[in-house]
Amino acid sequence: MSALLPPNPITATVPFDQDGIHHGFLRLPYSCDSSAWGSIMIPITVVRNGIGMTALLTGGNHGDEYEGPIALQGLAHDLDPASIEGRVIIVPFMNTPAFHAARRTSPLDGGNLNRSFPGKPDGTPTQKIADYFTRTLLPMSDYVLDFHSGGKTLDFVPFAAAHLLDDGNQQEACIAAMHAFNAPYAMTLREIDAVGMYDTTAEEAGKIFVSTELGGGGTATARSAGYAKKGARNFLRYAGILTDAAPVLEPSIEIDTTRGDCYHLAEYGGLVECLVDLGDAVKTGEPLARIWPSDRSGTAPRIVTARSGGILAARHFPGLIAPGDCLAVVAEVVSGG
Amino acid sequence: MSALLPPNPITATVPFDQDGIHHGFLRLPYSCDSSAWGSIMIPITVVRNGIGMTALLTGGNHGDEYEGPIALQGLAHDLDPASIEGRVIIVPFMNTPAFHAARRTSPLDGGNLNRSFPGKPDGTPTQKIADYFTRTLLPMSDYVLDFHSGGKTLDFVPFAAAHLLDDGNQQEACIAAMHAFNAPYAMTLREIDAVGMYDTTAEEAGKIFVSTELGGGGTATARSAGYAKKGARNFLRYAGILTDAAPVLEPSIEIDTTRGDCYHLAEYGGLVECLVDLGDAVKTGEPLARIWPSDRSGTAPRIVTARSGGILAARHFPGLIAPGDCLAVVAEVVSGG
Amino acid sequence: MSALLPPNPITATVPFDQDGIHHGFLRLPYSCDSSAWGSIMIPITVVRNGIGMTALLTGGNHGDEYEGPIALQGLAHDLDPASIEGRVIIVPFMNTPAFHAARRTSPLDGGNLNRSFPGKPDGTPTQKIADYFTRTLLPMSDYVLDFHSGGKTLDFVPFAAAHLLDDGNQQEACIAAMHAFNAPYAMTLREIDAVGMYDTTAEEAGKIFVSTELGGGGTATARSAGYAKKGARNFLRYAGILTDAAPVLEPSIEIDTTRGDCYHLAEYGGLVECLVDLGDAVKTGEPLARIWPSDRSGTAPRIVTARSGGILAARHFPGLIAPGDCLAVVAEVVSGG
Amino acid sequence: MSALLPPNPITATVPFDQDGIHHGFLRLPYSCDSSAWGSIMIPITVVRNGIGMTALLTGGNHGDEYEGPIALQGLAHDLDPASIEGRVIIVPFMNTPAFHAARRTSPLDGGNLNRSFPGKPDGTPTQKIADYFTRTLLPMSDYVLDFHSGGKTLDFVPFAAAHLLDDGNQQEACIAAMHAFNAPYAMTLREIDAVGMYDTTAEEAGKIFVSTELGGGGTATARSAGYAKKGARNFLRYAGILTDAAPVLEPSIEIDTTRGDCYHLAEYGGLVECLVDLGDAVKTGEPLARIWPSDRSGTAPRIVTARSGGILAARHFPGLIAPGDCLAVVAEVVSGG
Amino acid sequence: MSALLPPNPITATVPFDQDGIHHGFLRLPYSCDSSAWGSIMIPITVVRNGIGMTALLTGGNHGDEYEGPIALQGLAHDLDPASIEGRVIIVPFMNTPAFHAARRTSPLDGGNLNRSFPGKPDGTPTQKIADYFTRTLLPMSDYVLDFHSGGKTLDFVPFAAAHLLDDGNQQEACIAAMHAFNAPYAMTLREIDAVGMYDTTAEEAGKIFVSTELGGGGTATARSAGYAKKGARNFLRYAGILTDAAPVLEPSIEIDTTRGDCYHLAEYGGLVECLVDLGDAVKTGEPLARIWPSDRSGTAPRIVTARSGGILAARHFPGLIAPGDCLAVVAEVVSGG
Amino acid sequence: MSALLPPNPITATVPFDQDGIHHGFLRLPYSCDSSAWGSIMIPITVVRNGIGMTALLTGGNHGDEYEGPIALQGLAHDLDPASIEGRVIIVPFMNTPAFHAARRTSPLDGGNLNRSFPGKPDGTPTQKIADYFTRTLLPMSDYVLDFHSGGKTLDFVPFAAAHLLDDGNQQEACIAAMHAFNAPYAMTLREIDAVGMYDTTAEEAGKIFVSTELGGGGTATARSAGYAKKGARNFLRYAGILTDAAPVLEPSIEIDTTRGDCYHLAEYGGLVECLVDLGDAVKTGEPLARIWPSDRSGTAPRIVTARSGGILAARHFPGLIAPGDCLAVVAEVVSGG
User: Fold this and answer.
1) Is F45 on the interface with E (CB under 8 A)?
2) Which among E152, E196, E326 is the nearest to A37, CB-wise?
C-alpha cells in the first residue's frame, strides 16, 4: 500500500550515511499566511561510525514534555562519533511547532503527533511528520527510544515502558531494553486511547521500542532530566552502539497498570485537593482526592476513592479539573517496591 | 483622601456581624458583552462567635496558585463557629475571574491583583476588588494571611514570609505570626517589583500580615496543601481566634534573599536544563542551569552560574525560558538548615 | 462496509438493558492541550421498563438551541419508569462541547454535528459522536425525535417536521408522529444543504423520525419550551411507550416550503429592518425587509420583496446581515391557517 | 474644569449651522496596527431649518441594540428639512466600532460607551467619543433621545424611561417627553450600575432626556422597530421641531422598578427554563425560572421565585446563565395595566 | 472517477450561455456559527458574444495578492460584449473569504486554495471552491489566466509564467500565451511545493494556462497593476476573443529558476538586511542579505551568499524572517536582460 | 512635577559613563501570565570615547518599521569607539515587544509608543518605556535621531523631517541636522494626530531632533536601508561625534505638507487601485486612485482626485482600504524637484 502513497515532502539537510557528526534539519515546506514559501525546520543530528545498529532517539513528540529534549540536546552536542559503533539519529523535538509553542499539540493544525501515525504525506503538517518517521526514519532504525513525560496536565512517577506484543522475541527485547534504560520504575503500559501512536507503528515495524514517562507538569527537574540522560546512554549501550561501558543499573520498581480499575476519572469539575502524592502507597477504598466546587464556598467536596491498591503512579497536574479528566492512576507493584 | 473616593460597587450577600457561619458572595456588577447586567461573584465565608479579633484569610490573589484555595475551601466548610472566639473572614479566590481562568491575572482586564492595590472603586474589575479589600475588609481585620505559591511559571521551597517594617512592634508580631504558621522554610522576602501589592496595603494599615509561597507550577500536592492547611489553623491559633490548641510546630529553616545577587535572570531564551533542584545546596560559581538554543541541535548551551551560595529557593518552572525571566533564586540559610 | 470500520471509542457509563432510570455519560476520550488524558462527557439518561419500543430523544444537536435541552432535562429528571413500557434514551446535549460553548458548532473542531453524519469513529470528536449515534444508538431505537430551533442566527414559527421519503409506510408513520407531537405548525421541510444530516441517517435506517424548529435566537421562552415539553410526551404516547394518556392535541397549521421561491437570501449586507414578523401573512411582491448600509447615513436601503405569498415562517435573527445569509422563508399555508 | 481639558480630536465633516440636510461623519483619528493613519468614521446627519430647538437623537450607544439604528437610519434618509423648525442631529451608531462588531462594547478598547461618560479627550476611542458628546453635541442640544434595547443578553417589554431628577421642572419635562414618545410601557428606571452613563451627563447638563428599552436579544422585529419609528417622530413633535402633527398616542402601561426586590439574580449557572414570559403577570413567591445543571442529566434544578409581584419586565436572554447574571426584573404596574 | 463524486453545492446566479454581460455570484451554502443558513458569495462576471473560445480569468486565488483583482474588477466593469467574440468568465476573488480577510488562506478552514485542487465537493469550503473550478468552470474554458503576486510575505520581479508540460503542443501554446501577456519578465517556473495547484489541474485538463507573479507585499502599485491590466487584454487578444487589436508588446526579459540552487532559504531567524534589490544583478558568492539576531545588539549577523548568479527575482518581504523561510530566489537570465 | 513621580522601574545593564562599547539591556520587570517574575529586555548599546556631545539613536518606536533597526544593529556592531568623540546611545528597538511581534503597537498593552509620551513610570509597559526615555535617556542627550518608516499600512518617499518650533535657534539646528542626514527628500511634517509623540517630548527638552520616514509596507529594501545607514553616520558627523569625515551629501528634494488639503482620506472601503505611484507628479483634480467595492463585480468604483498638486509623498499600502484611512498625501515641492 505504501507504494501508492505520494513521496513525503520532507528533505533532510544532513547525510545519513556519512561517518562523523552532522547537525541539520528535516525541512518540511509549509505555505501559510506568515510565509508563503516557508518551511518547518525540525532539528536533527546524525552521529555515525562505521557499520552497525541504528538507534533512533526522539523527544518532543508532545511539545510540552522536556526530559527527552534536554537529554537529547545534550547528547547531540556531546556524543563523540569515535565512542560509538553504528549510528545514532537524534530528533530532540519531533513535533517542532508544538515544542516551540510549548503545547502538547501542533499550533498549525491541532495535531497530536502521537495520535497521527502512520501519517499521511499529503495531510496536515503533523501527519506529514508522522509519515516521514514511518516511511523514512523507522526503516533505517533497529532500536527506537521515544521520550515522554506527563506534559502540562499530567504527572508521573518516572518510568520506562514496554508494551505487550504478539512477537515474543520482540517483546522480550523491548523489555530488556526497558530494563537497560533503568528508570526508577518500569511499567507495562496500556494506553487509554491507542489509535495512531508512534509506539504501535514502530513496534509493528519490528523495532526494539522503549517509551518513557519521566515526570510532568510542563517542566523538568535536575532529577527527572537525570533519568533521561542516564537512560539514553544506557539504551545505546544495550543496543551495542555506545561501547564505553555496560548500562549503569540501579534498583527499579516494576509496576503494572493493565487492570481496568487503575484509572480514576473525575465525574465532577472543580478544585483538586490531592490526598496522596506520586509514589505513595494506596489502599483500595482510600480517598485519593477531594474535588471542591469552585463557584462558592461552604459546599461539601466530592471524594474520589481508590478502586484498587498499589501506588499512585500518575495524577492530574493542574489545580482545576474538568469532568472526564483522568484524576489518578493507581499502579500495582509487581516487584521491587 | 479616601473620603473623596466614590463608594465601592461591591456588595456582600453575607452579614459580617452575626454569629454563626455564613457562606455567600461579594457581588461586583460587571456589564460586558456576555452579560449586560452581569456580576462577578466572589465566594466568601464569614465565621463569627462573639467579640474578638478578626482574621482575614485569602487565597487566589493570583488565580493559578492552589494551596491557599484548597486550605480555605476546607476551612470554610469545616470550621465550627463554636471552636473560635472572634471572627474569621475567608475569601478563597480573591481574584475569582483569574481563578476560574486558571491564570495569574484577570481575563477581564489583564489585571494582576497583587499589583493593583490600593485599588480604585471606579477602575477595572481588578482595581475594584483591590479597593474593596483596602477600604472594607482590611479595616475590619486584625490578622491577615494571604496565600501564594509560584503559579504556573515559578516553583518555590515552601515558606511563610514576613516583610521588614518601619514599626518594630508590628514587624515583631508579623514575624511571630510567620513562625506560628510554621512552614518548612521561613523567609524575609524582598519583592522584585513591590508597587501595588496587597502586602504593603495591609501592612501600612497596621495589620499583622503573613504571606506565603508554598509550591508552584500551577498545581498543589498533598504535601504542599498540607502546609497550607496546618498553617491556616496555626495562624488562627496564634491570633487567639482558634482556641483548640497552641500552634503545632515543627522544625523550620530560616532563609534570606535580601542580597541583590540572589536573583538570577536569563539573558538568553531556550530550553532550560536545571542542574540543581529546589532545596539543594548551592555554592558560589556552581552551574545552576544550562539554557539550550531550541532552534537547532549541536549548539553549545549557555550556562548560568550561582553568584552567591545557599540553597535553591525558587526556580523558573516551564521547560522553555525567555530572556528576562527569573531563572533561579539562591537563598542564604540563616538558621535551621 | 460498517464491518470494516474501527470500533467507536465512546463508552457509556449507564446500562441500556436494565429496568429503572439511569443517569450517566457517554464518555469520549479526547487528548488535548488542556487535558492529555481527558474525555468529553455527554450526559445521557436511560429509562426502561420491560420489553417494548425504544425512543431516542435528543437536543443540543446544535449547541445554541434550547427548547430541546430544557424539555429533555425535565423529562430525564421527572420520567417515572413505572409510567412507561419499553425504553427511552435521552441525550439532552448531543454535541456537548458545542452546547457548553453556546455555539452551533463544536469549539473543538468546528464541526456542525448535523452535517457530520454518518460520522467517522477515527475522525474528529464531532464525527465520533455522529458515528456513535449511527452505529450504536440508532440501531437500538424505533422512534427518534431530534429537537432543533433556529439558534442564534435564525428564528422560526414553532413547527414539527417530517421529510418526504421513498418508503411510503415509513413516511406515513413519520407524518403521524409529527402530528402527534402537535406543535402550532407542521411543516414538510426541504433542507437548503442536506448532506450529512442526522435526519437522513435515521430515516435511512428505517426509523420513525421527527424533527422540530421551535423558536430561535439563542434563547427559549416559557411558551416555546412549553411546545417542546408537550411534544416530547406526545411523541412517547404516540410510540406507545408513555402509557398515561393519548397525545394531547390542539389545532395546528400545516405549512409547506418545498417551492424553490420560499427562500429569500440577502445579496447586500447591512442593518436589517424587518417589515413583517413571524407568522404574519405575506403577499407576493410585498416588501419583507429593508437592508440599510451601515457605513454611513442618508443612503437609500435595499428592499427585499416576497417572491411568493404565505406566512413568514423563518427569518434572519441578528440585527446585521451579510451577503448570502437567508433573510426570510415564506411558507405556503396548506391547511389550518 | 473643562477649560483645562485638551481639545477633542474628533472633527465633523458636516456643518451644524446650515439649513438643509447634510450627511457625513464624525471623524476620530485612530492610529493602530491595521491603519497607521486611520480614523473611526461615525455617521451623522444634521437636518436644519431656521432657528429653533435642537434635538439630538442617538442609537448604537451599545452596539448590539437595533431598534434605534433602524429608526434613525430611516429618519436620516426620510426627514424633509421643510417639515421641521430648528435642528435635528442624528447619530444612528454612537459607538460605531461596537456597532460594526455587533457587540455591546467597543472591540478597540473594550469600552462600554454608556459607562464612559463624561469621557476623556485623550483617553481611549470610546472615551473620546463620550467626550465629544459631552463637550460638543450636548451643548448644542435641547432635547436628547437615546435609544436602547436589551442587546444580545437581555430582553425587555418595550418602554420609554425617564429618571428621577433633583430639578422638578426638568423632571416634569422629561416625563412629558417620555409620555410623548408613547412606547407600550413607560418606566421610571433605576440603574443597577449608574456610573458613567450618558443619561446622567445629559441630565446634569439640563437637557430634556428620554431613554428607551424597546426589545432585546440582538435583533429587532417589525413591531419593536415600529415603536422606535413612531417614538422618534413623536419626540420631535413634543419638542416642537417636527410640526406636521401632534404626537400620535396609544394606551401605555406605567411600570416601576425602584423597589430593591425587583431584580432577581442567578446564584447558580446552568440552562435557563423560563416559566413566565415578558409581560406576564407574576405573583410574589411564584416560580420565575428553573436553572438546570448542564454538566449532567437527572439532577434537580434550582428554582428562582419572585420576591415581589407585578409583570415580568426584563429577562436574561441567552439559554445559558452564569452566577451573578440578572435573570429577571419584575416591575410593579403603576397604572394602565 | 468523477462520476462517483457528489454534485458540487455551488450554484451560479448568472447564466453562462446568454449573450451580454451578467454580474452575479457563485453561491456556496455555508452553515456556521455566525449564520446557520449562510452562504459564501463569490462575485462572478460572464461576458458573452456568440460562439467562440472561452477564457477564464481569475484573481484572488490567494487572498492577499491584488494586481489580479484590480485588473479583473476593471475588466468586469468595462468590457463591452460587442468588443468580443466568444466568452469571458471573470472571477476576481476566487477564494473570496481569504480575499475579504486579506489573507493568503481562508479564515474559514485555513485552506490554501492553490494547494486544494482538484478539490472535494463534500470537503471544506476551500475544497468545494476548488472542485467547482475543476468540474464546472474549467470544462467550459479554453484559455485560463490565473493572477498571482507575492502576497504579504514575498515580492517578485513582475513576470508571467508557463510550466513545462508533457504535451509539446500544449506547452507551446502556453508559452505563446505567456509571451502575449507580455509582462516585463517571463519565467519558466518550478514550484517548491506543487501538490494541489490550480495550474496542474488546468494543464492536465488540456487548457492553455498562464500564471503570473506581478509584485507582492500585500499591495499593488499603479505600475504593477498596469502590467495586469495590459496583460489581461493581451491574453484575450491572443485567444482571439478580444478582437480590437493585436497584443500590445514591449521588451521582456526571459528568466529561469529551474536550477536547484536558485532558492536561498534562511536557516536563522532575525532581522533581514537586504543587500541587493529585486532585478539587481547578482554574482555567485555575493552576499544577498544579512540576518541580524533581534534579541540583543552587538552580535554579528549571519550572511547569506548567492549560490548562483543572475538577477534577484524574488525575496522575502517582511522585515523579520524565520528559519525555513525562502529569503531569495536568484534567476538566471536566459535572454533579453 | 517630575519630582513627584515614582522612580522608573527600568534598569540598564550597561554603564553610560565608561569609555568603550557596551552591549546590554534596558530591563523592565513585567509580571504576567507567561512569567510571574519576567522582564522585558530592550537591547541597548552605549559607545563612548571621552567627553563630548551625546547622540541618542532609536529605531523600532513602531515595531513594524525596519530601516532604523537595520542601520542601528549595524552601527552597534561596527562603530569603533576610537572613531568618535563623546557618546552614542543606540536603542535599535525602542518598543521591543512591538518589534518582536512585528506590530506597530505593543502586544502587551496595545500601546502606540509614539502616542504614549511623556509616559508614566507606574503605567503600562509602553508608558514605562516612554517615561524612561523622557526622564533618563533624553536628559543625557544632545542630539536625537528617531527612525520611522510607514510600517505595514503606509508607504513614503524617503525623507528626513524637522518640525516647526517656537525656538528659532533650535529649529535652525534641527533643520541643519535634517539636511545633514541627507535623505532623498526633506520634509516639514505636520502630524495628523500629534498628542503623545516622542518628537514633541524631545523638542520640548531642547534637543536637536530629527525624524524620518524612509519607506514602508513592513519591509526594507537595500536602497531604503541604505538611506538609513548613510543618514545615521551623517547625523553623527553633524553632531561632531563621528569625526571621520564631513557628512556625505547628495541632492535632496524639499517638500512640504503643511497645507490642509495634502491629506486624502478614503470615505469608502474596498479594493484600492492606485493610479499614481510614490514620487510621481500630481496635478490638482487628477485621479489618485479608484476604490472598487469588493463584495461584487460590475459596480462602478469611487474615484479619489487630488485636491492639490505636487508629488505623491505617501500612500495607503495594503490592497484593501477602510473608510477613514489615509489614502494619499500629496506634497508640495519646495525646491530641488
Assistant:
1) yes
2) E326
Q: Whole-angstrom Cα distance, residue C7 to residue C4?
A: 9
Query: Which residue in E25, E29, E109 is closest to C193 by CB distance?
Result: E29
Contacts of A143 by beta carbon, 8 Å cutoff, 6+ apart = A53, A54, A55, A56, A177, A207, A208, A235, A238, A239, A241
User: What would the pLDDT profile of D215-236 be if each residue is shown by its tens digit?
Assistant: 999 999 999 999 999 999 999 9
Chain E residues touching residue C64 (CB < 8 angstroms): 33
Residues C296 and C242 in one domain: no
**Pair B111, B105: CB distance under 8 Å:** yes
| CATH code: domain of residue D323 | 2.40.50.100
Residue F2, pLDDT > 60, answer no
Task: Tell me which residue in E6, E36, E38 faces C322 most closely, judged by beta carbons.
Answer: E38
> Are both A228 and A270 inside the same structural domain?
no
Query: Do C264 and C233 sit in the same domain of this protein?
Result: no
How does pLDDT run across C228-257, given as a tens digit for each residue?
Answer: 999 999 999 999 999 998 888 999 999 998
d(CA B129, CA B115): 12
Interface test with E, best of F100, F219, F223 (most E CBs within 10 A): F219
E319 touches chain B (CB under 8 A): no
C-alpha–C-alpha distance, residues B131 and B4, integer Å: 13
Q: Does A165 touch chain E (CB under 8 A)?
A: no
For residue F52, give the nearest of F247, F245, F239 by alpha carbon.
Answer: F239
| Chain A with chain B: Cβ pairs closer than 8 A | 153
Q: Say if the Cβ atoms of F35 and B267 lie within 8 Å.
A: no
Within this chain, do residues B48 and B145 fall inside the same structural domain, yes or no?
A: yes
Q: What is the pLDDT along chain B (337 residues), one digit of tens a residue?
A: 345 789 999 999 999 999 999 999 999 999 999 999 999 999 999 999 999 999 999 999 999 999 999 999 999 999 999 999 999 999 999 999 999 999 999 999 999 999 999 999 999 999 999 999 999 999 999 999 999 999 999 999 999 999 988 899 999 999 999 999 999 999 977 665 667 999 999 999 999 999 999 999 999 999 999 999 999 999 999 999 999 988 889 999 999 988 879 999 999 999 999 999 999 999 999 999 999 999 999 999 999 999 999 999 999 999 999 999 999 999 999 988 6
Residue C228 shares a structural domain with residue C270: no
This model of the complex carries an ipTM of: 0.96
CB atoms inside a 10 Å sphere around CB E223: 16
Indicate the number of domains in chain E: 2
Beta-carbon count within 10 A of D194 CB = 13
- Last residue of a domain, which of E213, E230, E250? E250
Task: Tell which phi-psi region holds residue E202, choosing left (phi > 0), alpha (psi between -120 and 50) or beta.
Answer: alpha
Question: F59 and chain E: CB distance < 8 Å anywhere?
Answer: no
CATH number at residue B55: 3.40.630.10
Q: How many helices (H) and strands (E) does chain D have?
A: 7, 19
Structural domain range at position C91: 2-250
Query: How many Cβ atoms sit within 10 Å of the Cβ of residue C245?
Result: 9
| Domain identity same for B67 and B201 | yes
Residues A88 and A169 in one domain: yes
**F133-167 per-position pLDDT tens digit:** 999 999 999 999 999 999 999 999 999 999 988 89
Burial zone of D169 (CB within 10 Å; 0-12 exposed, 13-18 middle, 19+ buried): exposed
For cell 457605513, name the residue: C295
| One domain, residues D174 and D321 | no
Residue C1 confidence (pLDDT) above 50: no
- Residues C100, C101, C102: CA angle, nearest 5 degrees: 90
Give the other-Cβ count within 10 Å of E108's Cβ: 17
Question: Given pLDDT bands bounded at 50, 70 and 90, which one contains residue D282?
Answer: very high
- Domain closes at, from A228, A250, A272: A250
